[in-house]
Specification:
- With about 120 residues, the protein is an alpha/beta fold.
- Helices cover about 40% and strands about 15% of the residues.
- It has six helices and four strands, in the order αβαβαβααβα.
- Strands 2-1-3-4 form a four-stranded parallel β-sheet, with helices on both faces.
- α2 links the parallel β1 and β2.
- The longest helix is centred in the middle third of the chain and has 13 residues.
């Protein structure tokens, strides 16, 4: 089943702190593609911004990734790269970490989505 969903572009990728990635891996999202590349990136204090940017861009290029989950604190570090991603797939979702709650005002994807609709669209 996992191979089938990988071929259909149904994988989630995770960029997060160790606790976030571990939680998702325990939930069963861990996969390696044909090139033996994982669908997660654990970010710690020694991870450079360049490594995070390269990991994010790498997930965007993969045709087996449909959703990229990223801790919002990490997303803030590479906001310029996230803002430049305009394709619907893979979708980029910012999530909280145990150290920092989610702040909707910082989520550029959410702000962009809100800009697509007016309040009259929801009446």
């Amino acid at each position: 089943m996992a191979l089938h969903s990988a071929q259909k572009g149904r994988l989630m990728a995770v960029i997060g702190d160790e606790d976030t990635c571990t939680g998702f891996l325990l939930g069963g999202i861990g996969e390696l593609n044909k090139k033996r590349e994982p669908n997660f990136l654990v970010v710690d204090k020694n991870t450079s911004m360049v490594e995070i940017e390269e990991g994010f861009r790498g997930f965007l290029k993969r045709d087996d990734i449909a959703i990229v989950l990223i801790n919002q604190t990490i997303a803030e570090m590479i906001r310029h790269v996230i803002d430049s991603h305009t394709e619907p797939i893979p979708a980029v979702l910012e999530i909280p970490s145990k150290d920092a709650p989610y702040d909707a005002t910082k989520d550029s994807i959410l702000r962009r989505a809100k800009g697509m609709f007016s309040s009259e669209d929801f009446r």
